TrEMBL record:
<protein>
    <recommendedName>
        <fullName>Palmitoyltransferase</fullName>
        <ecNumber>2.3.1.225</ecNumber>
    </recommendedName>
</protein>
<feature type="transmembrane region" description="Helical">
    <location>
        <begin position="76"/>
        <end position="94"/>
    </location>
</feature>
<feature type="transmembrane region" description="Helical">
    <location>
        <begin position="174"/>
        <end position="198"/>
    </location>
</feature>
<dbReference type="Pfam" id="PF01529">
    <property type="entry name" value="DHHC"/>
</dbReference>
<dbReference type="InterPro" id="IPR001594">
    <property type="entry name" value="Palmitoyltrfase_DHHC"/>
</dbReference>
<feature type="transmembrane region" description="Helical">
    <location>
        <begin position="48"/>
        <end position="70"/>
    </location>
</feature>
<keyword id="KW-0812">Transmembrane</keyword>
<feature type="transmembrane region" description="Helical">
    <location>
        <begin position="218"/>
        <end position="238"/>
    </location>
</feature>
<comment type="similarity">
    <text>Belongs to the DHHC palmitoyltransferase family.</text>
</comment>
<keyword id="KW-0808">Transferase</keyword>
<keyword id="KW-0012">Acyltransferase</keyword>
<dbReference type="GO" id="GO:0019706">
    <property type="term" value="F:protein-cysteine S-palmitoyltransferase activity"/>
</dbReference>
<dbReference type="GO" id="GO:0016020">
    <property type="term" value="C:membrane"/>
</dbReference>
<feature type="domain" description="Palmitoyltransferase DHHC">
    <location>
        <begin position="131"/>
        <end position="257"/>
    </location>
</feature>
<dbReference type="InterPro" id="IPR039859">
    <property type="entry name" value="PFA4/ZDH16/20/ERF2-like"/>
</dbReference>
<keyword id="KW-0472">Membrane</keyword>
<keyword id="KW-1133">Transmembrane helix</keyword>
Amino acid sequence: MPSSGHRLRDVEHHPLLAENDNYDSSSSSSSEADSADRVWFIRDGCGMICAVLTWLLVVYADFVVTFVMLLPSKDFWYSVVNGVVFNCLAVLALSSHLRTMLTDPGAVPKGNATKEYMESLQLKPGEVIYKCPKCCCIKPERAHHCSICKRCIRKMDHHCPWVNNCVGEKNQRFFVLFTMYIALCSVHALTLCGLQFISCVRGQWTECSDFSPPVTVILLIFLCLEGLLFFTFTAVMFGTQIHSICNDETEIERLKSEKPTWERRLRWEGMKSVFGGPPSLLWMNPFVGFRFRRLQMRPRKGGPEFSV
């Protein structure tokens, strides 16, 4: 340690850097410099299955809405308006899902707990810093280690298998949009299912759909169950996320009853910090800040994530 006045707290008394870690500070700084040019992705089997399942369920809902309910309808404008609205919501939901899954949630660089890095922090005498013994990094305030991502995540809220990623400082906005658009898709699908059942009961089942009546009933019932489950889950998650943002408190901090040592950004200030800027329609846009990146496989040692 450069000064006895600096204290490094480590519950497991892990050394600053093990000899077999072969950490290179220059490689770390270069990796941080081009982190904006990489796409984050977690190679977790359960998470990838849940993410694929999410896409399949949304595609199924779009198939039933489009080909079972809207295209056979005799009301042209009813089909066009509802088709455009539902497909736009589905595209926005899946885009938000991709942005959440492929955005770095705020991972702290691995292995930066070195004497050189400590000196660069210009710590005050007696100042306490914390080092994660699992990924050998200096933990910023409000950062927590994720056992699935194998990284410390800034303002980590939770790890969601449905988006195959942690929800943290840099992708919480997209996760909120994902839950909101899925909830809206579910409400729209449930409404269309109710109208479809009423139309088929009043008329002829053979005329209200291009599919046979038994197949139509099965498809609509499954869509109703899916819509109810998705709406319940995403509506609850959307509410808890907005509550957390307005109180500037992550789910982990709430569960651990951690006393805030930071200056809280309450209500609109918290919303502005997450969504960026004053309230506008851009808050609803998951494509803000998106740019295409050159695909390049980069295997990374000691972690399940890879970059492209």
